[in-house]
């Protein structure tokens, strides 16, 4: 995961219900709007709502009232691939100036909002469906606290910057804040038409509403920092621009649908969320990690999301590899847990990161981002054949491989270990970065340096993929060395990590090289790295799919039989979609597509209970019940979240045994399986080489038939049975 969950200092405080259940989310690049279902910013839930830009909340309040009262919500829908929010509101029973009562549902308010390039656009249409003319007051209350995202999450600050006095014009309000980092931040509110009254925190209109007539108001809220001056469009022009960008960006995308509505809605939501987390980002289609807490570049998250989506959208991997190569560490810096060749953990742009109040401005404290980076490069080569691009970043790949050997292996035992050097950095530096996520069977926390089992798998796969790239680029001697090192690691791994009693691998080795003999999902991730022998792969499968590990919705992070099991914890018994997808991929690579399809079905069934069918970062690991109760929500999970959205296409790939290769080019289905409740999957516009294909997979007499509906270019589509 990401910074903020490993120590109480950076812990996300839960002060209400799950964020994804309370919010409507709009995002474009570095700007996100977290709104309630009425389209307001009201401070409910965690108090995380607001309009954010570069991890600063530029608008902390925006509430609409009608005659002094909030309207009644009728509907709230996100449309057009997450591009805009539409809200239908109406009045409660209310009194007007002459003492008469206006009945409920006489006034209709239609509100539509979208975010584009630092500005949140808000159109408010007010319609009188009554039979007499009405005079009503519509007011907007607003405020800007310029809080840093870490401050909102609960981190205490030693000092604050200077909140300057609002500048009020006839139709504008400008709020300003000079941070202790020296940055001037501005929030500009523009109202059209001009309000009847306007102050630094309120704008009001007196609407003379004739029967069956409509009045239209516009509010634009623009976020700026330092010398930025944004171009603000008319509402209609901005809306046309964002729709055109969505169409242009996505018309060539691969699409997935299913014969079951439950699958299709989940597939669509996942792909829409991946678009949401990439559109407008200055790094190109680099997926930001998640909303609300992680709307920025993370190494591990970006890499895993790119791996999940590689088969259908390799452009994401290109963007991730490009940006992480630029940010690769070149020197040793203990305060940032950096060494030469190491790949970024996260970068932050907010005030607290700039002043050093949190250490995550450009932070390298993850043990696995570096081998995962090499894996991504190797998988990208297989998928695209783009040797020109890989030749350009080959020095970065070699530096990452050098880090694995020189800095990752702290004591020369062939294993990658971690022990933080930064006094303010992360204690646990694997993806399970809670402070209590690595422990022994009796519950004792493991002493560092710690060698995680899945990280050894990553290092093995990194050397194997590194060797493949090296041979492609003509460095056969280096390739042979990497292959030899990989085999030595594999042998040492089997000897040191295998737990015969559990039929699986220990979660980790502690600083004394003692195994943490705990049944966890970490062992399941070793499968997709291919470090596991064929014989032991079946035993790992049995361990992952047993009742203690498989909840019915998905594989838990920790077995319910373990000492520290808690289904409501962050990493010790919860269910993480991306974790399940990587486990399912591993099962598929060893020919166990039927088990991968079981995980696919469990995650689909879970999705039906989440708002907007949006599977969050994680959910609680309670066992699936046979009644209508759905999975239990985790209160501060990000939603949407990149690698959870990416889990959906990877689970589809795993169940279908799908691989796409540039050489030939070829689309292959190995031993494909469909979940028991799905008759058909359609994959449209799947590109391979210079061509593309539309393919339908359909259950026929206990098997899965592969039918090519459309094909352009010289593509081979093949089905192989194990």
3D structure, described in words:
With 722 residues, the protein is of the alpha+beta class. Helix content is 29%, strand content 24%. The protein has 16 helices and 33 strands. The longest helix has 22 residues, at 387-408. Strands 6, 7, 10, 11, 13, 14, 15, 16 and 19 form a 9-stranded antiparallel sheet that branches. A 4-stranded antiparallel sheet has the order 1-2-3-4. Strands 5-12-18-17 form a 4-stranded antiparallel sheet, with no helix packed on it.
- From the N-terminal CA to the C-terminal CA, the straight-line distance is 35 Å
Structural class of the secondary elements?
A: alpha+beta
Coarse shape: globular
The helicity comes to 25-40%
What's the alpha carbon Rg, rounded to whole Å?
27 Å
The main sheet comes to:
9 strands, antiparallel
* Poorly predicted sequence stretches spanning 5 or more consecutive residues: 1-8, 14-20
What value does the average pLDDT take? 93
* Binned strand content: 15-25%
Number of strands: 33
Count helical runs.
16
